[in-house]
Amino acid sequence: MNSSIHRALIFQGGGSLGAYEAGAYKDINEELSGFFRKEGRGNEPIFHIVSGTSIGAINSAILVSYVKENKTWEGSGERLVEFWEYVSKQSSVESIPHFAHYWDSWRKLDRRIASGESARRYFSTKEFIFKGVPNVFIPKAPLPDTRFFDPSNTWYIYDNKPLKESLERFAKFPISTSFEDGEPRLLLVAVDVQEAIPVVFDSYGKEDGTRKSEYGKYGRLKSGGSAKDSEKNEGFEHVIRYNDGITADFVLASCSVPVNYDYTRLDVENHTLDMRKQGDYTEVEDNNQPSSNVGNSLRFFWDGGLLANTPLRQTILAHRHYWHKVKKLEDNIPRLKFGIINLHPAKQEYVPYDYDSVVDRKNDIIYHDRTEFDEFVAVLASDYAILAKSLIKLAEENGASKEALQKILKEKTKVLFLATGKHGRYDDLVKGRVDVDFVVRLERKNDSHTISNKTFDFSKTTIQQLIQDGYKETKEQMKEVLAGNRRELSDT
Question: How far apart are CA 438 and CA 207, in angstroms?
Fold first, then answer.
């Protein structure tokens, strides 16, 4: 498993469209397993990292849990499909004989009327929105408007406890994995509501051996010691600890769609920063604060799709941090190759004119894969690092003293590093470089029957169709991937 190339699979958020990811993954698993067997690499892991946001977090957790418990990727695709078949529900419309045929007869008279299949989806989702889906969500008591006393401002909210129970039926929590044991890394993304910051939950350990997520401002932690002691006591404002591994609540935090669901509440350590101006960062001094700098509280989390529906950037940063900070590598960090399943088509052949179609198109634009710029920046940074190292080598070969070069390299950067919240040095820019040189984007195709509430359509017919579409469309795309990129998939 300790190869020079690692593969990461990224699952997007998209509600019931996650069934498409199940079908897509089933084919990806079959295709890559067959490819590696032919190459004499049958014992190789299919993916080293599995990342997910929202419903993608659900799919990711089920897969990593399965591989950890069974010590194999074989059967993982079937397990994911089994989950989606379990959460699907037959709608009332599906039980009406010849519903689609009857509806299509009206469409023959007026082409503005929706197709029978589109109507089936539309009224199925209406039913689920009012009644819920037993293994996914159920309506809670509406919250009346006590602020403006406006009946139309009532908050209709759902309980996602059934989703948690379904998840725990198919995944074993807590999920902790390690590279040494040959286990895939699980990365999930949620959003801290008050900070508006993506928070990444990681099944691998940090440099101190613990599992935790740190975020917020970085600085010297408030303490009762001297300034010298304070310099050794640096950290982030907020820390979530989970030494035993990722829990189901963390997955739900990534799935708590705003308005539809309540916040997910997690226990967080809150560290008081000593906000005096001290070198690399600003810190706060409050003489009225007690010497203790830690206080625990519940913080509120929403769906990671708000800020990172395709968590490519978070995956790259987490990969770099692990190999650079935990494994202490400055060079030869494993290169990254990504597979992204895009649930929300970026392109659409027609312009929508009715309300439902306009809302549907708006949602696709908001949540489609927008990581091409992240990929560009990652590759650009890698190219600059290569250029810098080449220029350093050239300077040394042409008589530049090491002292002069080190003087330049030790100067501080203007940028604050995201992993630490501190200014780095120029030599930090060339250390821990991650090459991202191969990204496969597998696209779900929209059909003419699409509706705006498609992420709520857990009807049995739709879920089965999504699984089949994911499998079929991915197989078509994977043929091109395997045919044109054999060398890129190699570890040499």
Answer: 28
